[in-house]
Design goal:
The protein is an alpha/beta fold and about 120 residues long. The chain has a single domain (about 5-115), classed as Rossmann fold, CATH 3.40.50. About 40% of the residues lie in helices and about 15% in strands. The chain has five helices and five strands. The chain has helices at about 15-25, 40-50, 65-70, 90-100, 105-110, and strands spanning about 5-10, 30, 55-60, 80-85, 110-115. Strands 2-1-3-4-5 form a five-stranded parallel beta sheet, with helices on both faces. Helix 1 links the parallel strand 1 (about 5-10) and strand 2 (about 30). The longest helix has 14 residues, at about 90-100. The radius of gyration is 13 Å and the shape is globular. It starts with a strand and ends with a strand. The model has no long low-confidence stretch (mean pLDDT about 95).
């Protein structure tokens, strides 16, 4: 059972990344800045997250689901978690920590989930 590692998309509020790490210091959540994702198109972002074995965490409900579908037709992904922008920062943090605590990385392979559903 492998622990989940997360990758923040460039559109994800940095307060979510910072707050998640503050609440759960053992959780591995890489910022978009560290991964140099700013300005990159969805396929490149998905490829970077996949190469690192990280679930991509994004607010992008508009283009990411379709791009993810195209991506997994030819490559493997560690998964995508889409958080609604209507969630409060604390609700988003709770959702990420819950995913990290109750699932393992293998369960997320080539999966996409939106919160709320």
């Amino acid at each position: 059972m492998t622990l989940i590692r997360f990758q923040a998309d460039a559109d994800l509020k940095q307060a979510i990344v910072t707050g998640t790490i503050r609440r759960q210091p053992n959780l591995d959540f890489q910022s978009a800045y560290i991964a140099n994702l700013e300005g990159k198109k969805d396929p490149a972002v998905l490829a970077i997250a996949a190469q690192e074995g990280r679930i991509l965490v994004t607010h992008d409900r508009k283009t990411m689901p379709a791009e993810f579908g195209k991506f997994i037709m030819s490559q493997s992904s560690a998964g995508v978690l889409i958080l609604s922008q209507s969630l409060s920062i604390s609700e988003a943090i709770e959702a990420i920590i819950l995913v990290w605590e109750v699932s393992n990385a293998e369960e997320w392979d080539n999966q996409i989930m939106s919160i709320p559903f």
